[in-house]
Amino acid sequence: MLISKKDADEMKNNNQNKLLDILKYLAAVLIVCSHCLPITSNKIFNIYYGQWFFRFCVPLFFISTGYYFFDSTKEKQKKYIIRITLIFLICSLLYLPRYISYFFQTSIDLHIKIDIFIDNFILGYYHLWYLSALLFGLLIIYVIQKTKKINFIFQKIYTIITVILILCGALFDEYYKFFNIPLIKQIQQSLQIIGGVRHALFFAIPMILIGKFILEHKKIFSKKSKLYVVLLVFTSMLSLVECYILFNTLGKNITLDITLFNYFPAIFLFILTFFYKIDNIKISTRPLRKQCDIIYIIHIWIIVGVDKYLNLMLQYRCIIVVLFSVIIAFLLS
Question: Quick check: 194 pLDDT over 60?
Fold first, then answer.
């Protein structure tokens, strides 16, 4: 998405990772499909697509961003954050009509409407939560790095911080329902003020820090590629089992944004892009980066347009939305 390898080129003049470009493009398409759910009449398929299959996509973007963000100078990090801020503001303005439409069409109290409007603008409207989470996550990390004493401690314990944040994210996403503890439920409800678990603190920051960890231990991760293929398959199955257990225990109304295992496939997919190079392909994948960005920005408007003007069956609706998104992104890029 907007935080792809494209920005890494601005951060640091490194070699092109064509496989990562292609993988991110496919991930963007999978995210579009997730926003088109239900995409078939098969309820089980819809559930496991939405709660398991595509769940590696967003962590992949965060992890790769963290990798290239920490592989750059402080000055370039600052410019990158400014760029993300501008993009987020532009995207928010692009979807402002959706804010306004909701504001006037709903019958809830005015002060509640205002609160929702402000929340959407700060925390991101619908899919824009990703940009908001990334922006606040990078800002927090950047400020920490600017303070020497805090940064010194941070560098020593950031792996521990990452694990704690992920565990807390999983707890306050769905796992808290296993514990009949009022305090945990109160904390979970109060977290909605900062976007819930699917925002900067429990999602963006730990995934970005995983990217930092991969960068710092690149020599270790550059050996035995078959091991990471096995780990990719194993963790994918592990997250599937987790999804099955949570779904059958907690019911169909779960939203598995953060679990104990669903982000692991993204880690091993990202690592594998450094093994399986496709440099023999002479065609540049740079246009895919731009198209990936545009697909991310426009696809919600396309969904709105398709729903308004076309009366399509579920599977055709998803295909048409993806097709329009890809074509428009190709033309605009």
Answer: yes
Q: Residue 213: is its pLDDT beyond 90?
A: yes
Question: Model-level pTM greater than 0.85?
Answer: yes
* HSE-up of residue 295 (Cα within 13 Å, Cβ side): 28
Residue 284 CB neighbours (<10 A): 11
29-57: per-residue pLDDT in tens?
Answer: 999 999 999 999 898 999 999 999 999 99
Alpha-helix runs per DSSP H in the chain? 5-11, 18-35, 43-51, 57-70, 74-94, 96-105, 110-123, 129-146, 148-173, 182-190, 205-216, 218-221, 225-250, 264-272, 286-309, 314-332
* Exposure string over 97-117, b if 16+ CB within 10 A, otherwise e: eebeeeeeeeeeeeeebeeeb
How far apart, in Å, are the Cα atoms of 330 and each of 59, 285, 291? 25, 13, 6
Written as one string, the DSSP assignment of 73-90 is: -HHHHHHHHHHHHHHHHH
- Other Cβ atoms less than 10 A from the Cβ of 192: the count is 12
